[in-house]
Amino acid sequence: MFKHYRLRSVMLGLGVMLVVSQPTAHTGASGIVKERMDAMGVLGDHARVVGDMLKGKTAFDADAVETAAAAFVMHGEQITGLFPDTEESRSGARTEALPAIWSEWDDFVAIATRFTEDSRVFANIASKLDSGEQSDEENSRAVRTAFFRTSKGCSGCHERFRLKQD
């Protein structure tokens, strides 16, 4: 039943987020810049898996949704640590981080905190998918809503704190 649902808004939000996982972006990056690019790439890979399910490109897999949601939570808990206020972090080779991250640190932390909270909701929903407590349609709505909210956090942060992509 999941494959019959298409959510254009989810895919729009993912479009911004998935650009991160392009391998060419990592060429020349090192240190903390590469570390955060790699982390974002892993997150983008998980988002692509769930997005493909919601678009009906792949079969629904509750375990993959749960794994993706857990990765979102882990990333949310680590995100602020990937942006230390150091010269390397601010201006390292290939960084796409805007100076606004550090000049508007409280806002950045608030967005990261919200992303983590939304990711925990997503993970909670994902953990109950095989329980039989809800119908496929109810599960679909819950996954779509939680995934959209979580991915919206990614795109919102990227719009404000990441160098615009061509």
Unreliably modeled segments? 1-24
Mean of residue pLDDT values: 83
Q: What is the domain total for the residues?
A: 1
What is Rg? 16 Å
Query: What is the helix content?
Result: 55-70%
User: Termini, distance in Å?
Assistant: 36 Å
For the record, the CATH architecture stands as: Up-down Bundle
Shape: elongated
Q: Spell out the helices and strands N to C.
A: HHHHHHH
CATH topological fold name: Four Helix Bundle (Hemerythrin (Met), subunit A)
Q: How would you name the CATH homologous superfamily?
A: Cytochrome c/b562
Short note summarizing the structure:
It contains seven helices and no strands. By secondary structure, it is mostly helical.
Could you walk me through the main structural features you see in this protein, from its secondary elements to its overall organization?
With 166 residues, the chain is mostly helical. The chain has one domain: Cytochrome c/b562 (Four Helix Bundle (Hemerythrin (Met), subunit A), Up-down Bundle), CATH 1.20.120. It has helices at 8-18, 31-54, 62-78, 87-91, 100-103, 105-127, 136-161. Helix 2 runs antiparallel to helix 3, helix 3 (62-78) runs antiparallel to helix 6 and helix 6 runs antiparallel to helix 7. The radius of gyration is 16 Å and the shape is elongated. The termini are far apart. The relative contact order is 0.18. Mean pLDDT is 83; it is low at 1-24.
Topology:
Layout: H1 8-18, H2 31-54, H3 62-78, H4 87-91, H5 100-103, H6 105-127, H7 136-161
Helix pairs in contact: 1-2, 1-7, 2-3, 3-6, 6-7
